[in-house]
Amino acid sequence: MGFWTFVGLAFVLVVVLSIVAAAAENKKVAAMSSSERTTYLDAKKATMLTQQHGQIKPALVCPHCQGKGTVRTQSVKRKKGISGGKATAAILTGGVSVLATGLSRKETSTEAYCGNCGSKWDF
Questions:
Q1: What pTM value is reported for the model?
Q2: pLDDT per residue over 60-111, tens digit each?
Q3: Is 119 helix (H, G, I), strand (E, B) or coil?
Q4: β 55-56/104-114 pair status
Q5: What are the residue ranges spanned by the domains of the chain?
Q6: Residues 25, 31, 32, 38: what is their CA dihedral angle, to the nearest 10 degrees?
Q7: DSSP code of 94?
Q8: Which residues lie closer than 8 Å to 56 by C-beta, 6 or more apart?
Q9: What is the DSSP string of 14-67?
Q10: Count helices and strands in the chain by DSSP H and E runs
Q11: Residue from 103, 108, 107 nearest 83 by CA
């Protein structure tokens, strides 16, 4: 069996398992009462928001809608400008180093997301 055949079979297996898991989830949710379903789906949504945007910071106020207690934050790395050291290395190596590292530098900043109005900003 070739490598690509194995990769194809693995992909098909993952897709089939995903479909089976989604069907089981739908069946479980359909069997719940209305109040149980609402509680379950709200908890699932809160977990997903925490994974995507971080924890809620109750003291932060959204600068767009002035909502308090709805702002989530997380640390992110963003590409910012051109790194002087990388530009110098690119000149010295004839541009070969650019292929491996790129010219941008990455800086850590904090991304904030408001659950009330949906706006995102960095600080």
A1: 0.57
A2: 999 999 989 899 999 998 877 666 776 777 777 776 666 666 666 678 889 9
A3: coil
A4: unpaired
A5: 54-122
A6: 50
A7: T
A8: 69, 70, 71, 72, 115
A9: HHHHHHHHHHHHHHHHHTS-HHHHHHHHHHHHHHHHHHHH-EE-TT-B-TTT--
A10: 4, 4
A11: 103
